[in-house]
Amino acid sequence: MNQYLYTIFAMVSFLASVVGAVCGIGGGVLIKPVLDAFGVLNVAAVSFLSGCTVLSMSCYSVAKARISGSCLVDIKTGTPLAIGAAVGGIVGKIMFQYSSRLVENKDQVGAIQALCLLIITFGTFLYTLRKDRIKTHRISNQPACMAIGLALGIVSSFLGIGGGPINLVVLYFFFSMDTKTAAQNSLYIILFSQAASLINTLISKNVPEFGIGLLAVMVSGGILGGFAGRMVNKRMDAEMVGKLFMGLMILIMLICVYNMIRLM
Asked: Is the pLDDT of residue 161 over 80?
């Protein structure tokens, strides 16, 4: 892989992590489809690198919020959600590995991921357009929180996106969180699910082939993006964050359509 592509990967990881930190979508929902679109790495390698980048960004963002005293995570609901997401992260990774072994043409796995992400993002887009008319809930039951976290972890890990728009919709609907509170809680969930997914991959020795320099570049981009994203988030109100989120969903859907056509 030449220097030009390293630069592109660094820019993608940084910019996606900035947006991910602002909106609470993790960044993987952009990194995964964008890098798939370049077609220079296989689906498994892109999923792994995307997960590592999202993990670095969410780790920085959550730790910094804790240290600075600006953390908006509701521990009573956030921690059961995160624990469920950690288990879901492992289950989702196992599902992805199993699917990859079943299909001879690995591009087909990428096409399936793109289709699933397109459906989820479109549903999220429709919900967001009508969310002011939809009654929300305030779930506090811990087993229910863990079950919801489990589902989020499975989806994010299988698709290699970290968390994505679905996290925010779930937090809006089931927990009546505002935009910025949902963003921080989403990053907290993503941190647990991606950490569990990475540990499972390392233990099972299913790490795909890629250049170690590329991993270093993308992880660095994730941390720097998390730093920059926190700065940007402080200067944006909830309405601006919401508009950015809507614009991103449109972009993600367009990229998913392109990837489906290219990989099928």
From this structure: no
Reduced to 3 DSSP states, what percent helix, strand and coil does the chain have, rounded to the nearest 5?
Answer: 80, 0, 20
- The structure's pTM equals 0.84
Angle ∠(16,128,70) on CA atoms, nearest 5: 55
Distance CA 8, CA 72 (A): 33
The pair of structure tokens assigned to 203 is 């233990």
Tens digits of residue pLDDT in 79-95: 999 999 999 988 988 88
Check residue 160 and give its pLDDT.
72
Contacts with 202 (C-beta within 8 Å, 6 or more apart), sequence order: none
Token code pair at residue 211:
């250049």
Continuous segment of H or E residues that includes residue 87 = helix 75-102
Tokens of 124: 């999220």
SS in 3 state form for 106-123?
HHHHHHHHHHHHHHHHHH
Type of residue found at 125: F
The answer to whether 24 and 167 are in contact (CB under 8 A) is: yes
> Does the pLDDT of residue 162 top 80, yes or no?
no
Residue type, position 241, single letter: V
Pull the structure tokens for residue 148: 């919801």
Of 104, 101, 128, nearest to 25 by C-alpha is: 128
